[in-house]
Design goal:
- By secondary structure, the protein is α+β, with helices and mostly antiparallel strands.
- It is built from 14 helices and 15 strands.
- A five-stranded antiparallel β-sheet has the order 2-1-5-4-3, sandwiched between helices. It has a five-stranded antiparallel β-sheet with strand order 7-6-10-9-8, with helices on both faces.
- The longest helix is centred in the middle third of the chain and has 22 residues.
- It is rod-shaped, with a radius of gyration of 45 Å.
- The protein starts with a helix and ends with a strand.
- 20% of the residues are buried.
């Protein structure tokens, strides 16, 4: 810039010719200098203290479609976008107060087709004996492509930011420490946790504090294992929200590594799966326990027996032993000889309650069919003599008649 200013100053401020007998070399040098200026990729300009164009090279025409001749003498603000006038005014104001500052700023210039072009203006004050009368010289560099690329990047960033903030759940970037210090969380954190993004990212509260105490070590160990192998991690756990409620969440993420393998942080997504988890737990409970009688299902009953068999086989010398009893309810009769499905269900429920009341907590009770119940009794070998006592207790609790509303039902029980 300083070299161009020096050349421009030399050419524009060259002393006038005082003799026809002077050699022609200076004129040739001036012509060559002008030719050089016209071949630059930048617009070279000179303006006076009032902001009028005093000189423009031919690149100006390529930038604006205006000829140099029709612009000389006009105010440079005529060709500057109105929104950028303040930049030019402020610079002239500072220079007029004797502050010999340089200007470097992006502005828009207006073309002859009433479009605009982004340029980088660089200007400085030309030396002058009278500081009140100064000229400015400088260049305009086309930065339209650079500006367009920046605007595209900004638009892409805004679109991405909008997309992230509309993703159900919380998108995050955090540090790999015990607090899981959050560098960024999306707007979905509000619905997920009850906290605003600023609350989570400004270290007011650590994410680890929101993880259920029983899950904190599990979360830490699972993620550390994945990081060591540079793999994705996926886990399900509980968090405690701002209002004290528990939520089940699903987290999926991966470590972000530099080119040399240094861990920079973690990126991931955490979503609310509370409803899905509750349905899953409900289905799981239904597969393990009968929703009506609350007894073990046949699937669970057979699994418990299989486990007892395996345990006895693996450790034949241990004190562990088990017994299986099948209780057959031969008939349900009442005085009026009335029987229906509703009564059968109520009788089964009553029998289940009676059996549960006399069985030990380690016993597993299951209704095998309408008239049969199975009982798994696990005990030590030294307690085998108590089996007959348990059988007598079962028979005793089922001898009493079952009363439902105005009806009395009698049962006949056999155990094998």
């Amino acid at each position: 810039m300083s070299q161009i200013s020096s050349l421009l100053e030399h050419w524009i401020n060259r002393p006038p010719s005082t003799s026809m007998a002077q050699p022609s070399a200076p004129l040739n040098n001036s012509a060559e200098l002008l030719q050089a200026l016209n071949h630059l990729q930048e617009v070279v300009f000179k303006i006076n203290v009032t902001g009028q164009w005093l000189f423009l090279n031919q690149r100006w025409t390529e930038f604006t479609d205006y000829s140099v001749e029709e612009c000389l003498g006009q105010s440079w603000l005529t060709h500057v976008h109105p929104q950028d006038h303040d930049i030019c005014h402020e610079y002239l104001r500072r220079v007029s107060k004797g502050q010999p500052e340089s200007l470097a700023a992006p502005i828009r210039i207006i073309t002859k087709k009433n479009a605009f072009r982004w340029v980088k203006i660089r200007a400085s004050v030309l030396p002058c004996e009278n500081p009140r009368i100064f000229n400015l010289t400088g260049t305009l560099t086309d930065i339209s492509e650079e500006k367009s690329e920046n605007e595209r990047q900004i638009a892409n960033y805004r679109a991405l930011f909008s997309l992230i903030n509309n993703v159900p759940g919380m998108v995050y970037r955090c540090r790999n420490n015990r607090d899981w210090t959050m560098a960024f969380v999306s707007a979905g954190c509000r619905d997920l946790t009850g906290y605003d993004a600023e609350y989570i990212t400004n270290s007011t509260s650590a994410w680890s504090d929101m993880i259920h105490p029983e899950a904190r070590e599990y979360v830490w160990m699972t993620i550390q294992s994945a990081i060591q192998n540079q793999q994705h991690f996926e886990l399900t756990y509980r968090i405690v929200t701002a209002d004290g409620h528990e939520k089940w969440v699903w987290e999926h993420g991966i470590g972000s590594f530099s080119a040399n393998g240094e861990l920079l942080g973690l990126d991931g997504l955490i979503t609310d799966i509370t409803d899905t988890k509750r349905q899953s737990l409900s289905v799981e409970r239904d597969t393990l326990f009968d929703p009506t009688t609350h007894l073990a299902t046949q699937h669970l009953f057979l699994n418990r027996i299989q486990h007892a068999i395996e345990l006895a086989s693996e450790k034949p010398n241990s004190d562990h032993s088990f017994s299986v009893a099948i209780i057959n309810i031969n008939q349900h009769n009442n005085a009026d000889d009335q029987d229906n499905d509703n009564s059968t269900t109520q009788i089964s429920t009553e029998i289940s309650a009676r059996l549960n009341s006399i069985l030990s907590p380690s016993a597993t009770l299951c209704q095998l069919n309408k008239n049969e119940f199975g009982v798994l009794l696990e005990h030590g070998k030294t307690q085998e003599k108590n089996i007959s006592r348990s059988i007598r207790s079962i028979q005793g609790c089922l001898k009493a008649p079952i009363k439902l509303y105005q009806n009395t039902f009698y049962t006949k029980v056999s155990i094998g």
